[in-house]
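tokens incoming
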């Protein structure tokens, strides 16, 4: 069974719960049913209730994860149920935190104000990349704009990972295209011989966020921070997510001159936080050949995986969750 398939995992969980019910054993899914039944709403919850519900969601999902799982892995069970629960509670909790709506409006307006003023060069993008055509970054921009189309926290993180890997792949392609035939005779050959790192990656990410200007970006980031399984955010996914939050924070607090000249007085931040938070002690710019090989086989260079489908009410009923 493909443990990455939400449909397959939910079907296995339903079968396991049904067998436990027939044997009069307590089912670990009861708390999931009750959580959805009590809190599903067609309108956002009052902001003071979001924090309490966040704790309840993690408590219920952790209890299911700690229960002896069926043949699939515990993390796969939690991911599938996280998708189900948050898809059903999405309207109630997304953008419902204290100040979320105001922060969304302010960030969106600020990025719209900065878009015509900031160029890659002014954001500190390295020389080999700042002259690239905007079309080079279009796939990464599109990945961020799709955040509004998916409800599950894991799917939103997947889009962020895809965005960052598309940037990495494009940086590597541009570097390869601009590499002189005789690197030894170049005045500063290190840029052509060293791996692409955070100093090159982060300013481009800032530029991509600026061009994408996703709807309700603050709420998307807050939603992931509140509801994504924290155990799954300790490696590469958490590193990319942290960089995206930093890019949004940098743009939100950026000051500009009215005439659009000398807009950035300092370079965009580069490495963020403790290097131990990122895989291999740095931003995963040089992803493994195995990953790139699997991407190319799927016809999606630079993309790790596709966001899974959004659980619908009919599918929830089909699995016995209603």
């Amino acid at each position: 069974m493909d443990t990455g398939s939400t449909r397959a995992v939910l079907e296995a969980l339903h079968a396991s719960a049904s067998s436990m019910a027939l044997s009069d054993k307590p089912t670990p899914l009861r708390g999931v049913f009750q959580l959805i039944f009590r809190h599903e709403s067609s309108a956002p919850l009052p902001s003071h209730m979001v924090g309490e519900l966040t704790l309840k969601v993690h408590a219920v999902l952790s209890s299911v994860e700690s229960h002896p799982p069926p043949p699939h892995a515990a993390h796969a069970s939690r991911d599938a149920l996280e998708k189900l629960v948050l898809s059903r509670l999405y309207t109630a909790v997304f953008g419902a935190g204290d100040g979320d709506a105001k922060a969304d409006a302010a960030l969106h307006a600020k990025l719209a104000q900065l878009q015509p003023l900031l160029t890659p060069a002014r954001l500190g993008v390295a020389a080999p990349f700042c002259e690239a055509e905007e079309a080079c970054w279009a796939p990464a921009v599109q990945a961020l704009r799709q955040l509004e189309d998916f409800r599950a926290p894991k799917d939103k993180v997947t889009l962020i990972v895809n965005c960052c890997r598309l940037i990495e792949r494009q940086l590597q392609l541009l570097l390869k295209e601009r590499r002189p035939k005789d690197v030894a005779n170049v005045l500063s050959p290190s840029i052509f011989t060293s791996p692409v790192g955070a100093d090159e990656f982060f300013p481009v990410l800032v530029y991509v966020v600026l061009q994408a200007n996703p709807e309700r970006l603050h709420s998307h980031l807050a939603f992931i921070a509140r509801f994504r399984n924290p155990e799954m955010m300790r490696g590469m996914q958490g590193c990319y997510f942290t960089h995206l939050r930093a890019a949004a924070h940098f743009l939100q607090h950026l000051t500009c001159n009215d005439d659009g000249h000398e807009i950035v007085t300092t370079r965009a931040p580069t490495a963020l936080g403790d290097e131990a938070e990122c895989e291999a002690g740095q931003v995963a710019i040089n992803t493994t050949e195995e990953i790139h090989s699997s991407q190319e086989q799927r016809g999606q260079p630079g993309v790790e995986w596709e966001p899974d489908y959004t659980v619908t009410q009919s599918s929830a009923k089909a699995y016995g969750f209603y």
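note: Residues 19-26, 182-187, 270-305, 308-322 have pLDDT under 50 and may be disordered.
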